Task: inverse folding
């Protein structure tokens, strides 16, 4: 019975880490690397990763991204050694490059609307381009300030007992 109760508690707590409402929706589990090798125009995707560059244009802003897998809440996971491929996400409107900085975490929801070849060094890299309906910039993660109490040599010292109590 305890095991069942503990299991239900763990499931309830795990469900608290839900995806933000704007990022919810049915999508294809296709990765940017898989889309690069196939013709997937029109496929609905939810992709995320780190911003390489932010390029505002006259009517839209495009983000060049290095993709990574997404956690259960939609936030990009830590980058693996090779990532999940590069992609470009474009959204109507102006997004300030001073806010959408290089290496910030971003998740987009939209449809693949084509491909662009861009040079990375001397290499021509074919990147899927997403017409984004949602652009979600994640807050910067802050390190936790965790302080532990100093260890006590004997467990009974905190309750008025210890050297000095006996007159030592």
Result:
């Amino acid at each position: 019975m305890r095991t069942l109760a503990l299991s239900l508690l763990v499931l309830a707590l795990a469900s608290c880490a839900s995806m933000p409402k704007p990022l919810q929706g049915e999508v294809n589990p296709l990765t940017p690397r898989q889309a690069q090798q196939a013709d997937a125009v029109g496929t609905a995707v939810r992709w995320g990763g780190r911003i390489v560059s932010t390029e505002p244009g006259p009517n839209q802003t495009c983000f060049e991204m290095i993709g990574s897998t997404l956690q259960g809440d939609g936030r990009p996971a830590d980058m693996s050694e090779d990532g999940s491929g590069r992609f470009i996400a474009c959204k109507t409107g102006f997004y300030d490059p001073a806010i959408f900085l290089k290496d910030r975490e971003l998740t987009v929801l939209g449809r693949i609307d084509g491909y662009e070849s861009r040079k990375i060094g001397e290499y021509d890299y074919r990147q899927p381009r997403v017409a984004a309906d949602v652009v979600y910039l994640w807050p910067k993660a802050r390190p936790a300030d965790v302080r532990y109490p100093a260890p006590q040599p004997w467990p009974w010292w905190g309750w008025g007992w210890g050297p000095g109590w006996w007159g030592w």
About this structure: The chain is about 10% helix and 35% strand. The chain has one domain: 20-137. The first strand starts at residue 44 and ends at 56. Residues 7-15 have pLDDT under 50 and may be disordered.
